[in-house]
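hey m, so remember when u said the tokens were messed up on ur end? i reran from scratch. heres the input so u can diff it against urs
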Amino acid sequence: MSTSVVELAREVRLLVRQLRGWAGASWEVPVPGEVSRAQRTVRLINELAVLGERAGVGSPPGMRPPRLAPHALADQVAVLAEELLAALADALEPAGARAVRILADARTAVTGARTDLDGAGFGFRTR
């Protein structure tokens, strides 16, 4: 497995651990872009679905995951990322340029989400 895939897997694990630590109103804390943590996570989920489609995970073209309640978003991120990482690991064995681009885009999506979600403080709403 490529070092880059391992690094992306680490980023995903850190993000999922962070997401699993939130409950209730913590999901409604605003993050950059004037959205809530839940909305930012849903945006990442959709990005992962598009990247998975590009990587050939086998989902029907144009299909997006259903919107789930905030308490289930961490699991949704974990499943989509796992499928994407598996597809990328297979595609990178012969070092395909397309797979390398998808991997770079996935890393940008995950690290961007982590950056946005990290900056929201301890989960307190501001008035």
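this time it looks ok to me. DSSP finds four helices and two strands in the chain. if urs says something different then somethings off w ur setup not the seq
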